[in-house]
Amino acid sequence: DQDGNWEIYTIASDGSGTPLNLTNSPSGDTQPDWFRSGGLLGGSEWIVFTSDRDGNLEIYIMAADGSELRNVTNNSANDSQPAATRGNGTILFTSDRDGNQEVYSIYEDGSGLVNLTNNPANDSLPAWSSDGDWIAFTTNRDGQSEVYVMNKDGEELYNVTQNPAEDYSWTWR
After folding, report:
1. What is the domain class of 9-159 according to CATH?
2. Residue 122 · residue 105 · CB < 8 Å
């Protein structure tokens, strides 16, 4: 928020140099995730992120240098919390397009939209396993916040935190 709104910057990994503003927009640009294209975009490095530049939250991608900006989701719903796989071109995200939060997948070119969770509970915060075969996410389908995992097709669903506490944060190892 160096210029009064949320932007996406890059800087050298050692912290040297001047941060480079990649988005440079009056809108809010947040939740970046760096990925290598699965081939649909030429196999180069890209950044997926959330932006409200169209009046609602959408999933965008841009080349790692900030060029080639593209709206991947392009609809009137709120889409956020993107997570990209490393190499197969699939992006996970949370959307309220069916009336509640669900975890969706979409290809980096905007094709192949799939609702992976499809239930009346709120499902959010999706993350890929390192091998790209599993997805962890937070849900309240058991009446409280729990962490679940499912395979990449939205099947084989498991509650991995089954306890009376509210569970929100997790990471793959």
Report:
1. mainly beta
2. no
Q: What is the tens place of the pLDDT at every residue in 151-170?
A: 999 999 999 998 888 888 77
CA distances from 172 to 119, 128, 131, 134 (A): 24, 8, 10, 10
Helix ranges restricted to H, 34-172: none
Overall average pLDDT of the 33-43 stretch: 75
User: Residue ranges per domain, the chain?
Assistant: 9-159
Residue 139 token pair = 């849900």
Q: What is the Cα 131 distance to its own chain's centre?
A: 17
Cα–Cα–Cα angle for 37, 90, 138, rounded to 5 degrees: 135
Q: Give CA separation, 112 vs 86, 107, 115, in Å.
A: 17, 6, 10
Please give the Cα distance from 151 to 158 (Å, whole number): 9
d(C-alpha 20, C-alpha 40), whole Å: 26
Q: Is 116:154 a contact under the CB 8 Å cutoff?
A: yes
Q: Helix (H, G, I), strand (E, B), or coil: what is residue 145? A: coil
Phi then psi dihedrals of residue 95, to 5 deg: -140, 150
Query: Residues 137, 124: contact at Cβ < 8 Å?
Result: yes
**Amino acid (1-letter code) at residue 12:** A
* Predicted pLDDT of residue 40: 66
pTM for the full predicted model: 0.92
The total of other beta-carbon atoms located within 10 Å of residue 26's CB is 9
